[in-house]
């Protein structure tokens, strides 16, 4: 029910914003014409978006980041920590690794060996 209420409130807010934009356009159109009124509506929207961004960024700056957990040297633990911290980057890396494995399995094997052993990969020519 909470999700439904939130969706209904968001829809009402969107309707109110569109109605206010039309009202502003109709009010200003008599003085500035169609193009001027459209520019004023766009400028008002940009101003409100900028104001909202400043408010949101100021609210987030006051919070202190949580202390970083102790890092482990185990490869799997580091990998799982990375996936938990940055899931989008991890998915992108997994897709790239899969693409590389399909295109040329030798490159993927060399990259995994160098990551696990800490040595630069050797290339065969």
Mean pLDDT: 76
Total strand segments: 0
**Share of β-strand residues:** under 5%
Structural class: mainly alpha
**Would you list the SSEs in sequence order as H and E?**
HHHH
Low-confidence stretches: none
What Rg is obtained from the alpha carbons, in whole angstroms?
26 Å
* Tally of separate helices: 4
- Major pleated sheet: none
Distance between the termini: 64 Å
Total of domains: 2
Structural shape:
elongated
Helix content: over 70%
Oligomer: single chain
Features:
single chain; 125 residues; mainly alpha; 2 domains
In words, what does this structure look like?
With 125 residues, this protein is mainly alpha-helical. It has two domains: 1-63; 75-117, no CATH class. Helices cover 81% and strands 0% of the residues. The chain contains four helices and no strands. The chain has helices at residues 2-61, 75-85, 87-103, 105-117. α2 (75-85) packs across α3 (87-103) and α3 crosses α4. The termini are far apart.
Can you summarize this structure?
The protein is mostly helical.
Q: Secondary-structure map with pairings?
A:
Blueprint: H1 2-61, H2 75-85, H3 87-103, H4 105-117
Helix pairs in contact: 2-3, 3-4
